[in-house]
Design goal:
Helices cover 41% and strands 22% of the residues. The protein is of the alpha/beta class. The longest helix has 13 residues, at 11-23.
Length: 117
Amino acid sequence: MAGVLIVDDNAAFRSVARTVLEAGGYRVTAEVGTGAAAILAAAQVKPDLVLLDIGLPDQDGFVTCRQLHATQPNLVIVLCSIRDEDEYGDAIARSSAAGFLAKAQLSADELRRIATA
């Protein structure tokens, strides 16, 4: 069972994401609301996968993604947002993330599909 770190500044979304992912067989190891907290939490809980919001209050998800991969290169990171993927141009493709998941499409199966592609 893969351990997931949920990074999103919206506590309600974190709660929903935890419920959805745990029902789908994931183990949520931590939830945090900022990029800085994500770096600390990832170092502590060593997740297999990070569901990472692009719009964080302290720094964007692209910066956080780079920082996470600098310390844990094998970490699988899936970016997410309420915005559509095409609104980010080629920034998602240029990032080191495994892919993108729109928040409205969140499911354990969809996360698994992106993370293992």
